[in-house]
Design brief:
InterPro entries: Tet_transcr_reg_TetR-rel_C_sf (IPR036271), Tscrpt_reg_YcdC_C (IPR013573). It comes from Rubellimicrobium mesophilum DSM 19309. The protein is mainly alpha-helical. The protein has seven helices and no strands. It has one domain (about 1-135): Tetracycline Repressor, domain 2 (Orthogonal Bundle), CATH 1.10.357. About 75% of the residues lie in helices and about 0% in strands.
Length: about 140
Amino acid sequence: MLDAWLDPLRDLDPEGEPVAEVLAYVRRKLELSRSFPRESRLFANEVLRGAPHLSEVLGGELARLVEEKAAVLERWMAEGRIARMPAKHLVFSIWALTQHYADFDTQVRAVLGEGHDPFAEAGEFLDTLFRRLLAP
């Protein structure tokens, strides 16, 4: 399961166009939340419990992957291709803003009310949010 969650970050292409790469990552993460909400909640609950089954993965494979992709983001920032910000916190914000829709589905649907597709609306919102955030 964790591999499926990490694949979109692995797919971030260092040679791609930075804004397009980050927005594609956001969309892929949001789609995972839509497609696998129970798995997202399972992961969140594992982390909330102190990650007794995943602590080695979180501090190992996950940490190394985030470090590698943060270096790509920082290079893009240094080149002036995206705005400067703490790269790892950018990744955290993508995780938080995409997985929220799965982890807090009941709350999201209660607040939005009937007739709303939270994921469709979220996709448009997150695209705008990150496009503006990333603008150099």
